[in-house]
Amino acid sequence: MQAPLEGIRVVEVANYVAAPSAGALLADLGADVVKVEVPQGEIYRQTRPRHLGHKVDFDGSPAFQMDNRGKRSLALDLTNPAARAALLRVIDGCDVLLTNLLPERQTRYGLDPETLRKRQPGLIYASLTGYGRGGAEANRPGFDYAAYWARTGFMDSTREPDATPAYLRPGTGDHAAGMSLVAGILAALRVRDRTGKGQDVDVSLLQIGLYIQGNDLAMTLVTGKSPIRHDRCAPTNPLWNQYPVKGGRWLFLVMIESDRYWPELCRALERPELAREERFGDARKRFRANRELVAILDQLFLSRTLEEWETIFGRYSLIWSPMRELSELPDDPQVRAMGYFHSVDHPVLGKFETMGPPFQLSDFELRAHQPAPELGADGESVLREAGLSEDEIRGALPSSDDA
To answer: Which of 1, 19, 102, 200 is 20 to 30 A from 143, comparing alpha carbons?
Structure first.
């Protein structure tokens, strides 16, 4: 099958995670993505395993490789007028500009949507910001830790009562924003196919944090109240709760329709008489007796290891999951069966595995096996394709002293 985005050209002027992750997904779908970086390369390239204390020989950034696979690299110093002029020539031949430059920097470099659309009315302009392109905070820089996690109430609502707020893992909000950028870009391309007109795609980390919490926020918008935090020792539904097991591990019960599953769970726990006890007779009664029931379930679950519970629960129709550690997932048979990891053969780093895209197509194998480019590796070829002369290319590209 022809790649879904074959023939689509994307120029990415972005760093770190959210916008580049969108560029990687577009490349997976077959788009030609040119990544524009500062001459010394963005700092995300430098996040090597050894910097986090891992004793491995891998001398690259696994995260950078994942979020920049399949692209070409063009290194430019945008404070150089010749470099800015060269970049505009490259953008003239593209379909999508993808950027996380703050609006004031877009204007400073002549890369704002109004300026570019005068040159190319059909351009799709996809912008990722922390807090949105309008309002008083349009030029406020932000990572997902701040705009997506702390600012939106997510950080507060996910902690147990009196617990220290939880720390967000890297890229969590960024990758959600990247998927939203791709969805917006695809919609804009579809409209351009019909009308010939480009448009802006605006995604902010603040908006994504609000959207991901949509269930809670929809209730808050009606009630004006923050959601009640989950309390493991006194949950609203003890069958929708986490429990420790023997050996220091945990499992998570997710039986939201608790009346439906309560008798089956009692049989799996080898305590069928609990299902007949009046105090636990239905969901409301289990809520009123939640502390008492959790104490009983704690003792039962602590009697066996996670592996033993997996074997036992496998014989029953229950909704639950072991709480896995990330180091276990490379050997997870379901993950392997579905091919969620992709093997990359890098010319410098050798062969390694990376996380594939968050969806699969039946008639096209997404190109997640491609390596990320070496810094500036494609600069001359990209500028030649844009019609620059050799003198113009020399004036635009940084010298070896700049790198």
So the answer is: 200
